[in-house]
Amino acid sequence: MVLTCPVAMGRTTRRDGSSPLSRRAVLRAGALLALGGAAAPLTGCSLLDREEPPRPDPLAPLIDESLRLAAGLRAAADAHPDLAARLVPLAETHEAHATELARVTGTALPSESPSGSTAPPPPEQPASRAATLSALRKAERAGRDSATAACAAAPGDRVALLGSIAAARATHLEALK
Amino acid sequence: MTAPTGTEDPLAAALTAEYAAIWAYGPIGVRLADAERKAAVEAEDAHRSRRDALILQLSTGGAAVPPDRPGYALPFPVTDRASALRLAVEVEERTAAFWRAVLPASTGAERDRALSALIEYAVRATRWRRAAGIAPLTVAFPGRPG
Fold first, then answer.
1. How close, in Å, is residue B102 to chain A by CA atoms?
2. Which pLDDT belongs to residue A2?
3. Which of B119, B130, B134 to mutate to test the interface with A (most CBs of A within 10 A)?
4. At CB < 8 A and 24+ separation, what contacts does A153-158 make?
5. Is-contact B94 B88, C-beta < 8 A?
6. pLDDT tens-digit readout, A34-43
7. Where is the DUF4439 domain (chain B) (predicted)?
8. Better-scored residue on pLDDT, A165 or B1
């Protein structure tokens, strides 16, 4: 991550101010370069060491996604009680993923139950069983793909957990067939 | 094939797991019929492909290639369809664990291959669980030890 600063500075100065990259763009470039390593410090970089916004952990979106997937499964289980035995264990898995991701990233999960406020309001006319399962499969497929991408980009100490999360979401896709 | 120990080369360990998986599908396959036997043959083929790729990769890289053994101890006797399906679940879940252990030290294409194996074996374990009537169909952290 030593490259973060020189690369970003080089890009701003080389352009002679004709079309300078905004400070935000420089920070974004820095953030992109930093993705490979956890918490790359920008210390010693006088151009950028002021007003640095807190950078969210790259895994934060995955925590939100786990909670969303869990909420969707719980809402579907409420709408179709005959599916609850299949769906609730899958929701519990996503909640376990969120808990583990929060532990690894040192963040706090929302205090209320994930099945509470984050769940979409139940539709007046519940979707059919088949449509519900199809929507859940679509969500799990997207979740598998985002966990796979996160696994490819993660530092070594997180990659096994992300691999298990990608695999779990893939098995959900199978279990929802 | 028990569980990855973390002290040896994870690719060599994955190779020993693939040897054992291929061996185990012998007694599994003979207890299954029709679509389930076909699924067992496909599973065995997948383990053979990964075995061959690992042997090539390890020998090309100059690493020690662990040898196959003439036989492996099964965790329980396979006497009928039910025990064959249970063993198939175990084989897939255990080999998934060995590929998960490859992930931390891997990068690029090697990491992609390890993740593909972990996902594929976890999904196959779920299919075998369904065939065996085992609930739940999934585990929360596929491949994670204990």
1. 9
2. 36
3. B119
4. A153/A35, A153/A36, A153/A58, A154/A58, A154/A59, A155/A36, A155/A37, A155/A38, A156/B104, A156/B105, A157/A38, A157/B104, A158/A38, A158/A59, A158/A104
5. no
6. 444 444 454 5
7. 11-145
8. A165
Query: Has residue B143 been placed in a domain?
Result: no
| B59 band by pLDDT with thresholds 50, 70 and 90 | very high
pLDDT digits (tens, 9 = 90+) for B60-108: 999 999 999 999 999 999 999 999 999 999 999 999 999 999 999 999 9
On the question of pLDDT at B26 being above 70, the answer is yes
Is B109 within a domain? yes
**Nearest CB neighbour to B103, from listed A92, A160, A172:** A160
Q: How far apart are the first and last CA of chain B?
A: 15
Q: Is residue B2 part of a domain?
A: no
CATH code (residue B95): 1.20.1260.10
Interface predicted TM-score (ipTM): 0.95
- Nearest residue of B to residue A175 by CA position? B137
What domains are defined for chain A? 1-55 (no CATH), 60-175 (1.20.1260)
Q: How many structural domains does chain B have?
A: 1
CB pairs under 8 A between A and B: 92
pLDDT tens-place string over residues A107-128: 988 865 544 445 555 555 678 9
CB contact under 8 A, A166 and B101: no
- Which of A85, A148, A163 lies closest to B100 in CB terms? A163
Inside any domain, residue B70: yes
Domain that holds residue B29: 10-132
- Mean pLDDT within A45-62: 75
